[in-house]
Amino acid sequence: MKNLSLALNVVLLIAVGVLYFLHFSSGKETPASADGIKPGELKVAYINSDTILKYYDFFKINTAKFETKGKKFDQDLQNRAQSLQNDITAYQRNYSGMTIGQAKAIEEDLAKKRQNLELYQRSLEQELMDEQAKMNEELYKKVTDYLKGYAQEKQLEIVLKYNPNSDLLYGGASVDITQDVIKGLNEVYKQETTQSKADSTASKKK
């Protein structure tokens, strides 16, 4: 028991010493971080990613193109599926007047057409998935590349992303740079589009 009591006293003594040190050292200058930035001087801002997607021209224009292409693919599939259904209906209507050999040949042809339609559908779906992935990758690169330059200009150390699924639960209006970033992104995209059109025109003239 004496040994246990002694051990507890030592622990308490150490704890008191730590509290004493923390109390009297609180007025000292906070050590700087490795890159020379003190925690209190860390400049942080955030963007609302949903608002960026809503008003960023690159995303709006390419999303509209993507949706148009998807509708075109869907209509094409419906037309092919209807054509196959018409062939099936004709086969069923004329079946009674066919020989066994004729019926078998038509059934094999219909089965092949059905298989080709399924393969075609999967190829279209894959094409759309690849195109969407490419667009998302380009979107990410455009936004992050712009933010690197923006952060350097505004002397920001961190730019956070806010949306209903993010870990940022609250951000004050003073550190919300969403509108400023949207304006900058659209200006850059407009310049890129203008330059692309100029290059295309110059290429046609050659």
Write the layout of secondary structure elements.
Layout: H1 2-25, E1 44-48, H2 49-55, H3 57-94, H4 100-154, E2 158-162, H5 178-205
Parallel strand pairs: 1-2
Helix pairs in contact: 2-5, 3-4
Outline: elongated
* SSE pattern: HEHHHEH
Number of helices: 5
CATH class bucket: Alpha Beta
Q: Could you tell me the number of beta strands?
A: 2
What's the story with the biggest beta sheet? 2 strands, parallel
Q: What does this entry look like structurally?
A:
It is a single chain. Helix 2 (49-55) packs parallel to helix 5 (178-205) and helix 3 (57-94) runs antiparallel to helix 4 (100-154). It contains five helices and two strands. Helix content is 74%, strand content 5%. It has a two-stranded parallel sheet with strand order 1-2. The relative contact order is 0.13. It has a single domain (41-197), classed as 2-Layer Sandwich (Protein Binding, DinI Protein, Chain A), CATH 3.30.910.20. It has 206 residues and is mainly alpha-helical. The longest helix has 55 residues, at 100-154. The model is unreliable at 1-34 (pLDDT under 50). It has helices at residues 2-25, 49-55, 57-94, 100-154, 178-205, and strands at 44-48, 158-162. The chain is elongated and about 90 Å long.
